[in-house]
From TrEMBL:
Entry-linked InterPro entries: Sig_transdc_resp-reg_C-effctor (IPR016032), Tscrpt_reg_LuxR_C (IPR000792), WH-like_DNA-bd_sf (IPR036388)
A Gene Ontology BP annotation from the UniProt entry: regulation of DNA-templated transcription
Gene Ontology MF terms: DNA binding
SUPFAM superfamilies: C-terminal effector domain of the bipartite response regulators
Organism for this UniProt entry: Clostridioides difficile
Highest taxon, organism lineage: Bacteria
Domain HTH luxR-type: 298-347
Lineage start: Bacteria, Bacillati, Bacillota, Clostridia, Peptostreptococcales
Protein's recorded name: Bacterial regulatory proteins, luxR family
C-alpha cells in the first residue's frame, strides 16, 4: 500500500477509505446498534473471541502496511494518516453512545421562597448527620445524584382583575345596553358580506362625499369601531359603579418583602436608626441594603462604634451591648446617635453630589489645590469675605489628623 503525504488515496478490492468514512450512521441511538453497524461495515468476524476483518481492504492495511522503526524528519506519523483518523472517528462514534446509566435529575420547583429555604435547611441538616442516597423508583436502583431545587422568579405584585361586561350590567344600565346593541350591529357588518355590499351601494347612491366604494371599506370601519365601543362600555361601567382601580400594582399575598422604599426617609434619624438595626438578609430589598452598606463603607467609625454597630445589626439590645463593652447604656445610645449623624451627613453629601446639584439646582464647583479634585463649593470652608479656602474640607481634616 502507498501513503502519499500521510494519506492513503488508492483503492483495495475496489474500496477506498472514504467508502467507510461516509457510511457512519449517526441516527442509531444505542451503543449496541452502533456496535452491530460497525461489525457489518468493517465485515468483522469472531475468531477465538477476537474480531478480525474479513475485508481485503483492512487485511492489506494491517497485514501489509509498512511501519518504519527509525523515522526521519520528513516521515509521516501513523497517527496523522487518514486511516488513523477514521479509526479514531469510529471510536468516538461508539463512545458517544455509551450506554452508561444517565443520572436522572430530581427536580422540584417552589413558588414560595420560604418553602424553598426551609427545604434547603432540612436537606443541609440531613446531609450533616448522615449520607443521603436518593432512590430511583423506576429502576429500583439507588442513585448518589443530588436533587435539584428550583425557586421560580418571585413576582412582587399581581395585577387588578380585568373588568368585564355581564348581562346584569346591560339590564342595570340602559347606556351599556345601547352600546351592546351597536356592538352587535358592527359584528353583523363584519360577518355578513352581502349586507356590507348592499349598504355600500345604498350609501353611495345617497351621499357621494362619503367615498365608500365597496363593502371592504365598511368591513374596515367595523373592525376599527369594535374595540372602541367595548372600551366605551367599560368606561360607562366604571363611572356608574365607581370601582376602585389601584394606581400601583397590588402586592402578592406570598410576597415576603414588607419594606416600601418610598416610605424610608434617609434624612430622618429615626428611620436611619431603624435601618441600621436591620441586618442584611434575603427579605431586605437589595437596593436599600446595597445603599446602606455602600454609605457605611464611606464613613469613618471608631473601633468602639464598629463593635456597637455590628451588635446593633444583630438585634442585641443597648443594655446587652453596654454589659459586653463595660460601659453605660447612655454611652451606647450616644455612639449610635453619632453613627446615625455620620450616616445622614454622608448620605446628604452623596445626594447633593449625584442628584440635587445635578438635576435640580445648578451647582458651583471649585478645584482643590491639594488633592486636585473638582468638588462642590459646599465642600470648602468659607474664607471670610474672600470667598472659600483653596483646600477642601476633607484634605484639611486629613492634615489635622496627620499632625495629631
Amino acid at each position: 500500500m502507498a501513503l502519499i503525504s500521510g494519506n492513503f488515496k488508492g483503492k483495495i478490492d475496489n474500496k477506498s477509505i472514504w467508502d467507510y468514512m461516509h457510511k457512519l450512521d449517526y441516527k442509531l441511538e444505542t451503543l449496541e446498534e452502533r456496535k452491530k453497524f460497525i461489525d457489518e461495515l468493517l465485515n468483522l468476524k469472531n475468531i477465538d473471541e477476537l474480531k478480525f476483518s474479513d475485508d481485503e481492504f483492512w487485511q492489506e492495511v494491517f497485514d501489509k502496511g509498512i511501519c518504519k522503526a527509525n523515522l526521519n524528519t520528513i516521515d509521516v506519523l501513523w497517527s496523522e494518516t487518514n486511516i488513523s483518523h477514521f479509526l479514531e472517528k469510529v471510536g468516538t462514534y461508539l463512545l458517544a453512545k455509551d450506554d452508561k446509566k444517565e443520572e436522572k435529575e430530581n427536580i422540584k420547583v417552589y413558588d414560595s421562597y420560604s418553602e424553598f429555604k426551609r427545604s434547603m435547611q432540612q436537606e443541609k441538616k440531613m446531609r450533616k448527620h448522615a449520607e443521603v442516597v436518593e432512590f430511583d423508583v423506576e429502576d429500583n436502583e439507588n442513585s448518589n445524584g443530588k436533587p435539584v431545587r428550583i425557586l421560580k422568579n418571585q413576582k412582587n405584585f399581581k395585577l387588578s382583575p380585568d373588568i368585564k361586561i355581564s348581562k346584569k350590567d346591560r339590564l342595570k344600565y340602559s347606556e351599556i345596553e345601547d352600546y351592546y346593541k351597536y356592538k352587535q350591529y358592527l359584528l353583523n357588518l363584519k360577518n355578513d358580506k352581502e349586507h356590507r355590499e348592499n349598504l355600500s351601494k345604498s350609501i353611495n347612491s345617497n351621499n357621494v362625499k362619503l367615498r365608500i366604494k365597496k363593502g371592504g371599506d365598511i368591513y374596515r370601519f367595523a373592525i376599527k369601531q369594535l374595540p372602541l365601543v367595548q372600551d366605551d362600555m367599560l368606561q360607562v361601567k366604571l363611572q356608574k359603579d365607581k370601582n376602585i382601580i389601584w394606581k400601583a400594582p397590588l402586592k402578592d399575598s406570598c410576597n415576603d418583602i414588607n419594606i416600601d422604599c418610598d416610605l424610608i426617609d434617609m434624612f430622618d434619624p429615626v428611620h436611619v436608626k431603624a435601618l441600621l438595626q436591620i441586618l442584611y438578609n434575603d427579605n431586605l430589598i437589595d437596593e436599600i441594603a446595597l445603599s446602606k452598606q455602600d454609605i457605611l463603607n464611606k464613613i469613618e467609625l471608631t473601633d468602639t462604634q464598629k463593635i456597637i454597630l455590628s451588635l446593633w445589626e444583630k438585634g442585641v439590645t443597648q443594655n446587652e451591648i453596654a454589659k459586653q463593652l463595660g460601659i453605660a447604656q447612655k454611652n451606647v445610645n450616644l455612639h449610635i446617635d453619632r453613627i446615625v449623624n455620620k450616616f445622614i451627613d454622608k448620605y446628604t453629601e452623596i445626594y447633593e453630589d449625584e442628584y440635587y446639584y445635578v438635576y435640580l439646582v445648578k451647582g458651583k464647583y471649585k478645584k482643590c489645590s491639594k488633592c486636585g479634585e473638582i468638588k462642590l463649593i459646599q465642600r470648602f470652608d468659607k474664607n471670610g469675605k474672600k470667598g472659600h479656602k483653596s483646600i477642601c474640607k476633607a484634605c484639611r481634616q486629613d492634615g489635622v489628623q496627620n499632625r495629631v
